[in-house]
Amino acid sequence: MRRSGPVDAKAAARKAALRALARAKRAALKAGVPLSDWEDEFLGSVAERVKTYGRAFGDSEKGDLSRPLSVMQARKLKEIVKKT
Predict the structure, then answer these.
(1) What is the 3-state secondary structure (H, E, C) of 42-70?
(2) pLDDT by residue (tens digit) across 9-44?
(3) Is the whole-model pTM more than 0.70?
(4) How many CA atoms lie less than 13 Å away from 1 in the CB half-sphere?
(5) What is d(CA 74, CA 60) in angstroms, rounded to the nearest whole number?
(6) How far, CA to CA in Å, does 56 sit from each of 29, 40, 84?
(7) What distance in Å separates the CA atoms of residue 77 and residue 61, rounded to the nearest whole number?
């Protein structure tokens, strides 16, 4: 059942980022692509920061503060997805 009313854009962006992080990890596991310890830690720590703070970075020079991931975090996530 869908709710009617205004959509909270920040909440929607957080949910999308969390889904993308989880999807990347699942895809790697399913494809049998080994993630480095760093990549595995990256996916987990970024997801935790998004859940806790609403975004995974705090420096406005690293990206738009209305986005849950910085520019470099989003780039690294894309690199991990490409591995699968």
Answers:
(1) HHHHHHHHHHHHCCCCCCHHHCCCCCCCC
(2) 899 999 999 999 999 999 999 999 999 999 999 999
(3) yes
(4) 1
(5) 15
(6) 23, 15, 23
(7) 19
